[in-house]
């Protein structure tokens, strides 16, 4: 399913259970609320969107998540996430608040390139702690603006 040029109030797990491929492009989205979804079985692509709230705590993007050329305005709490069998790709985005990666285990590659993280992230922080992120297939991180290795949980 592809959705483009829309103004969307709420996207929740029911939205993603309809198809195994979802692409959102050129949309303004008030809230993506996927807290506690665990195994989402859809490949999700978000491009050229503005997202006010992005709630993904305990969400497993098994078939991957790609966010490109988008702006996420609120704090993102991605605790106990990962468990992806396909890469997670964050490319050419602006994250205006802290992006909290906390206690995530990524089975496939994580790509974090060409992003602006104005208040930072702990994607590569908290290493050696019991709640540090685990990258079973590694990561590709390059050309980002902002601190990616903060040692904290927010």
UniProtKB/TrEMBL annotation:
Domain of life, per lineage: Bacteria
Designated name of the protein: Pentapeptide repeat protein
Organism the protein comes from: Sphingobacterium detergens
């Amino acid at each position: 399913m592809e959705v483009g040029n829309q103004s969307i109030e709420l996207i929740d797990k029911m939205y993603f259970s309809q198809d195994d491929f979802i692409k959102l492009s050129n949309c303004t989205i008030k809230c993506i609320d996927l807290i506690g979804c665990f195994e989402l079985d859809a490949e999700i692509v978000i491009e050229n969107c503005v997202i006010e709230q992005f709630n993904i705590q305990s969400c497993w993007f098994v078939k991957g998540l790609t966010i490109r050329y988008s702006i996420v305005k609120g704090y993102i709490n991605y605790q106990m996430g990962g468990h992806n069998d396909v890469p997670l790709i964050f490319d050419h985005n602006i994250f205006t608040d802290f992006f909290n990666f906390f206690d995530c285990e990524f089975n496939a590659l994580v790509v974090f390139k060409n992003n602006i993280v104005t208040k930072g992230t702990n994607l590569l922080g908290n290493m050696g702690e019991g709640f540090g992120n685990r990258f079973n297939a590694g990561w590709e991180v390059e050309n980002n603006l902002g601190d990616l290795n903060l040692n904290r949980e927010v």
